[in-house]
Amino acid sequence: MKFVVVTGGVISGLGKGITTSSLARILKSRGMAVTVVKIDPYLNVDAGTMNPYQHGEVFVLDDGMEVDLDLGNYERFLGESLPGSHNITTGKVYRAVIEKERRGDYLGNTVQIIPHVTGEVKRMLREAGQSAGAEVVLVEVGGTVGDIESMPFLEALRELQQEVGGKENMAFVHTTLVPVVGAVGEAKTKPTQHSVRELRSIGIAPDMVMARGPALLTPELKAKISLFCDVPAEAVISVPDQVTVYHVPLHLESQGVGDYLTKRLKLPTRTADWTRWRQFLDTYGKATREVHVGFVGKYIQLKDAYLSHLEAFHHCQGNLGVKISVEWFDAEDLRKDPATQQRLREVDGILIPGGYGVRGIEGKILAAEIARTQNIPFLGICLGFQLATVEFARNVLQLKDANSSELDPHTPHPVVTLLDTQEGVANLGGTQRLGSQRVLLTEDSQVHRLYGRREIFERHRHRFEVNPTYLERFTKAGYAVTGTSPDGRVEVFELPDHPFFLGVQYHPEFLSRPESPHPLFAGLVRAALARREGVSTSKEEVPRVPTPSIVA
Ligand code: GLN
Fold first, then answer.
1. pLDDT tens column, 368-381
2. Cβ-contact 179, 185 below 8 angstroms
């Protein structure tokens, strides 16, 4: 088993996650068995309790682990599902070490960062690689080299390099910033030099430098970085922003990254197969038709809070050849401002994502009402699905004070209520209904036609659900339950008299991939296009390529 470690210097937010994902894809395209692990040097055990405003979206895996959003990038680039053990946090490592200490596993020794914490990190990394059957494990170290938090991890990686047999089996890729400054726009390499020096001071010598920045590096600048940082010029890679993140792997390939890594790690030389990937980029670039989708959220200042949804739209563009322009609606503004409401009436499709808490909910309920009454194609996800249910109760069943008991514990009509299996919510970590769950779809429903199958697996993250005591009244009024869990929970509802109105309790955005866009997102885009162009599009236009996780 070999390792490729990606570290970051100068500033955070340089796109290490995309670099790591791209390197993984580059090796996979050469037929290597690869996997990816993210190290997050924070004390939280997992991302489940973290505010999306600080770290972006919480990504959910098949096994129900709530993880850093970079795991989503890895899954999308690899087209594979990863387990939660591939997100190592300081919290997880310390928890494991302390549990071992309490059990007496350390036989009376003083428990220390070196060797016990570093030992645990190495064990977790090896274990992740082994259980995935990987020939190469990519490891992304969150944060910036020099942070106190990341020290034990970098030390563990330094030790691991020795243990796996040195440079031949482990390469370090350092991502840095080359800013362009001054009136003449000069690219500056000094921050890169400093950051590489910082890395060397902890005993790690980089094998490749990924220079992020606005401009392509000239051969002279590459030579300069090569000289000062002591990496070969062919291993200084220029990575300016690309049209989409999916353009990055081929941009890296064009600078010989795949061949260099193959040589450096003495991997078998094979030609890379980019056929399907290029097809995606080609269709993406040629998109001429366009739809406008209204996205009604509450974290709209930070687009990373909804990263997987936005990626799912990119996947649609690269497969359907339709450009999706996302229009952001702050749910709170929507409630108050008639001009914003009018703007929402003019979009071609509406999406309400998941969420928690009371802020913005009345605006989201209004958005669902606009979609329903104006025949605008609609997809409600998790909280969006629950609020579309509340809207239906209030405005179709005339249960005026209906609500979710999460949002109004005293509502006389709790049409959405706490899951009956709930064992108490005092511990907020991992206590929701999480991860991949089986969903049974009704024959000949819209959702069945979209998936092309009766049984699916989708990822969940919720505490509340549609209250079964209202179901009879709902269905009589036209709320069609077309997806349920094997034990009868409502998973999907649709409105048969509407061109496209779907609510799903689960999170389709987590399973959309560039090579297989999610059928529900594709369905929304297709319906939006039909509305915009005033035509009905044929079913064949929806790609029937569900990801492995969806398939029963
Ligand atoms: N807050 C809702 C629940 O707990 C919805 C959760 C979500 O959208 N992920 O059920």
1. 999 999 999 999 99
2. no
